[in-house]
């Protein structure tokens, strides 16, 4: 269309267990005609997120699956190149479900205009976007932290976990982060200002976690599952709350994950705990505006910090995604598209 060479990454094969580069294919594609009242978009930054792994499975537990040969799903910051839509003008910056593609045609469904455009614009995919909101809604609505309580969060250096811990500090809590390796632990402790950071790869991880939580765990924000969950389980206090946000340790397990369900059930009962799974989308209407106010304020006064892990070029998206699943990212994973 109009001399645009659009490119996209499609799902070439369904992984069983860990995905590989061969499961993706980069290809040119022909943009469909713009529907009446629709828009043409150019993606500028693409968000890479853990949920995409679940969408690669045939029966995805997390919204729809990507079909074989279909564009990988995903959100992007995009520029409106052409618009017949009454709510958008050429040059507007929007959040759009473009998928892993350089361009997209849209009828306006799922679009959100960024007005004002945050600086940097990439924040709208991370700290001021879906991951930041997931942290805010899960912690504040389900975790309901009270001053003096201990809040533990897994994957603490990531876009969700980093905001959870900093919001816990703002709520007057002790914030304990779990992260993989010394570099991430140092970042969580020194840059993000958590009270303690514990390396889940250390052989004595469970003992170190217990030592970092002398009064037990009042709120555990679960991003991971697996052995990390098993280490937190003995530490819960009476009436502890668990916002169950993600289980990334299990996303590449093709069978059922190991773990002692009976012990989990016993602790939930005897500690009178609340274990509540959630998708951030259920809280958007009621809490998104207050989230933007609180977290923008935290960024402005330095109480909320964040990092972005930006790679250039659509072709690099599969490798960036695999790096994230392996824990080799530091901060929100983004692909910069300059097509
Ligand atoms: P992250 O950057 O936190 O996710 C990648 C990180 O996960 C890796 O860097 C790694 O960190 C950690 N990780 C991967 N495998 C393991 C493992 N086996 N054990 C422990 N840690 C592991 O991404 P996000 O902040 O975007 O997402 C965090 C979680 O939140 C995910 O589970 C995601 O699916 C979930 N989520 C849920 C939403 C909802 O609405 N419910 C919305 C958005 C995200 P490390 O090196 O520290 O181990």
What can you tell me about this protein's structure?
With 339 residues, the protein is α/β, with parallel strands linked by helices. It has two domains: 6-126 and 307-336, Quinone Oxidoreductase, Chain A, domain 1 (Alpha-Beta Complex), CATH 3.90.180; 130-281, Rossmann fold. Helix content is 27%, strand content 24%. The protein is built from nine helices and 15 strands. Helix 2 (130-143) crosses helix 3 and helix 2 (130-143) packs across helix 8 (284-300). The chain starts with 5 loop residues before the first strand and ends with a strand. It binds NADPH dihydro-nicotinamide-adenine-dinucleotide phosphate.
Keywords:
globular; single chain; 9 helices; alpha/beta; binds NADPH dihydro-nicotinamide-adenine-dinucleotide phosphate; 7-stranded mixed β-sheet; 339 residues; 2 domains; 6-stranded parallel β-sheet
SSE diagram, text form:
Layout lengths: L5 E6 L12 E6 L9 E9 L3 H5 L20 E8 L9 E4 L6 E4 L5 E2 L16 H14 L6 E4 L5 H12 L3 E6 L2 H10 L4 E4 L5 H8 L4 E5 L4 H7 L3 E9 L16 H10 L3 E4 L6 H17 L7 E5 L4 H9 L6 E5 L3
Parallel strand pairs: 8-9, 8-11, 9-10, 11-12, 12-13, 14-15
Antiparallel strand pairs: 1-2, 3-4, 3-6, 3-15, 4-5, 5-7
Helix pairs in contact: 2-3, 2-8
Bound molecules: NADPH dihydro-nicotinamide-adenine-dinucleotide phosphate (NDP).
